User: What shape does this take?
Amino acid sequence: MSEDAELATRRLRLKLALEDLREMKGYGTELVTVIIPPDRQISDARSLLQNEHGQAANIKSKGTRKNV
Assistant: This one.
């Protein structure tokens, strides 16, 4: 496959993925989209999300914890 065809395929996949994301709905922070740059490891992003989840679990107020 030529580089141009591969690039066109990647752009089409990205466009379709973005269209799918646009159609999704969530209440408040129920829907979270994480964009990971190509030069970043997925494990780094996962660690960051696990850390955020752990911090949210330590919130004492039920209402605030639910919204986070």
User: Anything to note?
Assistant: The chain has two domains: 1-28, 34-68. The helical segments are 3-23, 42-57, 62-67. The longest helix spans residues 3-23.
